[in-house]
Design goal:
Helix content: 25-40%
CATH class of the largest domain: Alpha Beta
Radius of gyration: 27 Å
CATH architecture of the largest domain: 2-Layer Sandwich
Distance between the termini: 69 Å
Shape: elongated
Number of domains: 3
Largest sheet: 2 strands, antiparallel
CATH topology of the largest domain: Herpes Virus-1
Number of strands: 8
Length: about 120
């Protein structure tokens, strides 16, 4: 999968066919001596903490962006909780009230950002 000078092409092709294998899962070029280890390490099925079965090589991306149990921070109080619990928590947390120092009224936390525009 690289450009090879025409003069070296036949020798290169022979070398590759003897020593390199294309992984049937990810299409990467892997030395034949390492293909078994590559498949066992990268493409073995593992179970995420959310109980989803996934290839090991995809687990980090899943845990970072798709796992319902990935850590997420509340926009109102910065507490860390599981992503699948975040929406319910933010509804509750944003409905709490705090006293405005300017007008003295109790304002819901979710409205504090916009409150200075209508305060007083």
């Amino acid at each position: 999968k690289k450009d090879i000078p025409v003069a070296n092409f036949i020798m290169h092709e022979i070398h590759c066919s003897r020593n390199i294998e294309v992984c049937r899962y990810c299409s990467e070029l892997i030395p034949k001596s390492e293909i078994k280890n590559h498949i066992e390490c990268e493409h073995v099925q593992v179970t995420c903490k959310c109980r989803m079965k996934i290839e090991k090589c995809l687990l980090k991306d899943h845990e970072a962006s798709a796992c319902p149990l990935r850590p997420a921070a509340c926009q109102y109080c910065d507490i860390q909780l599981a992503f699948n619990k975040l929406q319910d928590h933010e509804i509750y947390c944003g409905a709490r009230t705090e006293r405005c120092g300017g007008c003295g009224r109790n304002v819901m936390v979710k409205d504090l950002k916009d409150h200075p525009q209508v305060c007083g």
